[in-house]
Amino acid sequence: MLSKRLDVITPSRTVGISSKVKEMKAQGIDVLNLSVGEPDFNVPEKAKECGIKSLNDNITKYDLVPGLTILREEISKKLLEENNCHYAPDEIVVTSGAKMALTNTLMAVTDPGDEVLLVKPYWVSYSEMTKLVNAVPVGIETDKANDFKLTGELLEKYITEKTKMLILNNPCNPTGAIYTKEELLDICNVCLKHNIYILADEIYERICFNDEFVSVASLSDEIRDITITINGFAKSAALTGTRLGYSATPRELAKNISAIQGHLVSHPCLAAQYIGYGALKYCKDDIDNMVEAYRKRRDLVTARLDKIENLDYIYPQGAFYVFIDILKVKDKFEYKESLSSDFCDKFLEEYKVAIVPGIAFGIDEYVRISFACSEETFIEALDRLDKFVQGILA
């Protein structure tokens, strides 16, 4: 009697692992958690003050579906000043988390049977969101030698008459790879040629350690016209539980996304929107300090990984993850269907460390760790990973 769409989706592995860790901790088991993509920082104080003030001022009634005007104006200003993207406030729709911005977009753009291209490895929810709207996810096989980044030449090979959209996550979760301007132009010109939408998920754009970040929509007016920019506050300002994201699109598409949202949730929580407004308006230094902390952690994590024999990894240029290659343990590790899943399960069972299997991202010979936690936690966890790996290969 239930919907057939439930037959084709699988629960989020990252959420499942996080739930398991919470259960173990509730039982008194000391678990080191490197699985969750959640900043260990708190929401900046000035941002919280804006939310508190909104409640004290009794701003709790219905408001505009696409979001508070002052917040959309501030997002518009941010996109122009930081990303060189020209979006008017009425081209922005504020959502209950970036996940909702992604889902709104998929509902507004795709029809049943349309193909949505995903760059492997891809964030765990892209494929399931695509299935939920009855579109078809198509994974693009990429090359480790190029940090698993897409190229225009490779993209051409996957385009069919059913292709409607490319989802491009930059910086990438799980690899931390970042595209240069030239690499983006190469990809975007192929999308222009075939009239394919680009869903540019830029949720990690503030957490960029090396070259200046380039937004897809900043490349040209023609590229902007086929681009849906997705961003939010969870990663840059630690507003994970507050659930606040947004889409920025050409005006007509924004109207349709807003129409969809109006029937689903009306608008995001007003207190959350005021907190987001405060984060953009008053908390740039706080965000910069968080990014610098992540940079230092990245350097510590990779330095420790360099000392672990028989492991390789993709060097992260952004975000707060490392995608680790465990292929060298494959021949000596007993597993059933999934190398990475069984590897993570046994590591959690024997060493009490939670990490995410690469199969969740479409590539089974890898695992993902997060360094959005204390130095003490990830160094101890990596020490245990070293012992685990060498024990397998002994």
UniProtKB/TrEMBL annotation:
<keyword id="KW-0032">Aminotransferase</keyword>
<dbReference type="InterPro" id="IPR015424">
    <property type="entry name" value="PyrdxlP-dep_Trfase"/>
</dbReference>
<protein>
    <recommendedName>
        <fullName>Aminotransferase</fullName>
        <ecNumber>2.6.1.-</ecNumber>
    </recommendedName>
</protein>
<dbReference type="GO" id="GO:0008483">
    <property type="term" value="F:transaminase activity"/>
</dbReference>
<dbReference type="Pfam" id="PF00155">
    <property type="entry name" value="Aminotran_1_2"/>
</dbReference>
<comment type="similarity">
    <text>Belongs to the class-I pyridoxal-phosphate-dependent aminotransferase family.</text>
</comment>
<dbReference type="InterPro" id="IPR050596">
    <property type="entry name" value="AspAT/PAT-like"/>
</dbReference>
<dbReference type="InterPro" id="IPR015421">
    <property type="entry name" value="PyrdxlP-dep_Trfase_major"/>
</dbReference>
<dbReference type="InterPro" id="IPR004839">
    <property type="entry name" value="Aminotransferase_I/II_large"/>
</dbReference>
<keyword id="KW-0663">Pyridoxal phosphate</keyword>
<feature type="domain" description="Aminotransferase class I/classII large">
    <location>
        <begin position="30"/>
        <end position="385"/>
    </location>
</feature>
<dbReference type="InterPro" id="IPR004838">
    <property type="entry name" value="NHTrfase_class1_PyrdxlP-BS"/>
</dbReference>
<dbReference type="InterPro" id="IPR015422">
    <property type="entry name" value="PyrdxlP-dep_Trfase_small"/>
</dbReference>
<keyword id="KW-0808">Transferase</keyword>
